[in-house]
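dude i think i finally got it to work??
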Amino acid sequence: MALRSAPLLLLVLVGFALQESCFGSSSHSMKYFYTSISELPRQELPHFVVRGYVDDQVFTYYDSHSRKFQPGVSWMEKVEEEDPQYWDRYTQILRNEEQLFRGNLETLRSRYNQSEGFHMWQLTYGCELLADGSKRGFAQYGYDGRTFITFDKETLTWVASDPLAQITQRRWNVNPGLDQGRKSYLEEVCIEWIKKFLSYGKETLLRIEPPVVTMSSRTEVEDGMETHVCRVHGFYPREIDASWKRDGEVWLQDTLHGSVVPNADGTYHYWLSIQIDPKERGRYRCHVEHDGLPESLDVALKESNLGLIIGCVVAGLVLGCLIAGTLIFFKKYRNKYRAGSRE
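look at this
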């Protein structure tokens, strides 16, 4: 299968380098996801889709309906100022990729001796510029939701994930020069593109939004233990350090946590919970560190509201009894007064 030509040609332009100190202490990434589907349940869906991400923003896209490589964010329009043919050139590249991926699906279906129907061929590749200045790159193909073959940058070889993928592995590993070029792209050229795109979208990609931390709690009726949930809202960039601490030390016992999830406005949220004995409530804190905070936060646990609720209910019952008693007293007094008046 001729699968190796276009993925690295997509962005093999020489980007200009910016000083890494311009980008603060956060990590940044650029990733591309190609998906080709052989048979769709609904014809109005595209059978070939490409999405490019800088961090978690879709900044470029292409599909088999529009057949145009287009910007996904307004700041990507700046690329035309330096390269007026940018969109047209890569539109043609991706049209060729569309046909190539469709042919690969047929080849793989035949190789795996599968009938016609829903099958999927995917490519994921990209790079990361980490907060400590280190760099990472990756490239991987998948078939029907499973890893098919992966590029190993250290050995400059492709590694198959099943016996039938070894056919492709043998074909792709015969030209080390091409793999050296792929390694160079993932470790150098791709990183320069990250820096270029960060300069285009610095108002959003390099902004800093501090987290807002809120606490909620409940008491388990069965055993009297308390569950406290620390919610961290609206922060950017994505990197955050949030943990439970007991007596100043990180505490993992009886804790749960979610994933860092994007909000509709491009910020993120996160949660972590802990179950404790209410007698030890004062020993625990929710600890949060983020670039948007001048210093770390240590948020104390809230009092459980179960006692307050029970107190309110009891007070309400007492008050209700007092009102009812007063009404009965006045009713009896009024009836007695009326009876005395008739006599």
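The mean pLDDT is 84.
im so relieved honestly
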